[in-house]
Amino acid sequence: MTEQTHEAQEAQQTEATGEQPAVPPPPAVAPGVQAVPAVPDALGEPVPPRPRKDRRVLRAVLRWTTVAVVFGAVGTATAYGITGMERTDVPGLATESDGRWDYPLLVKPPLPSGSPGPLATENLAGTHHADLRALLLPAPEGAKEDKALRGADGWLPTKDYLAEYELEEDREELGQRLVDRGLRHIAARGWTTADGTRTRIYLLQFGTAAVVDKLIATDAVAFVPPAYQVRGAAEVEYDEGFPQFADVSGVENSPYAETKPYGPEQVRFAHLAVGDVYGLVVQSRKGAALAVPFQQTVTLQSQLLG
User: Fold this and answer.
1) Is the separation of the CB atoms in 120 and 101 below 8 Å?
2) Residue 244: pLDDT above 90?
C-alpha cells in the first residue's frame, strides 16, 4: 500500500511540474566489489620509433625503468659544465646497485673567451674550441687506466687508433680516408674495471662538422654491420636495447653489440658524431659486455662533447 501511495505521489508531481523525478545513478561497480582508481601503466605503451636519418637503422625503445630516472637527466648540462645536480641526477654519480660505475664529477673545460660551443647556431663549422684531450671521459673509480692510450702529449698516433680494427685491409683503407678527410689529431683514453671490462674511447677531430658527417655516413657506419670490423667483433647487430632516453641532444650515436656466439668475450661499441669530432667507444668483457656500463659510458661521453 505504501509503494502504491508513493507511486501515485510521483505521478501527481510529474503532472504538476512536467518534470521527471530524479533517479539515482546506477552504482559504478557491482555490489561488494571495491572500485579501484585507474592508474597509468608505469611502463606505458611502447613508444613508436622516431624517424632516423637514412644512414641509420630504426631503433626500438627499451622500456627500462631501472635507469630511467638517472638517464632522464641526460642532456640537462649547461653549455660549460655538468654541475649543480644532485648525485642521483647524473648517470655517472648514481648508486651502483644496477651496475652503473661511479664516475667523478664531470665538468666541461672552459671555452676560450668569445668562443661558442660546438652546437651553437653561430658555430656553423661545429668546432670544438675546447682542448679535445680535456673532453675525454675520465676513468671511473677503482679502474686501472691504460696509459698506452695517452700517446705523446695526450695525442694518439693514427696507427694506434687503426689497431682497433680487425682486418689489415680495413686499417689501410680507413687510414687513407682519414688522411683524405683532413684528420687533425686523436685523443684517447682507456681503462679496465675490477670485473674485467675493458673500455677504449677515441675522439678524432676534423676541420668541420660536414667532414664528420661524411665520415659517419659513408666511411664508418654506412651499413649494418658497419663498414669496418672492430677487433674481436666478427658478427654484430644494431643495439636495439640502447634506450632512446639516453640519447644526448645534438649528438649522433650508433651503438652496436656483438651477437652470439661471440667466443671468450663480447664486444660493444658506438660511433659518435658531434660537430667536428667523431668518436668511437668500445667495451669488451669476458663472457658478456654488460649493457648498463656501456650505455652509461656512451651517454656521459656524449654529454661532454655536446
Assistant:
1) no
2) no
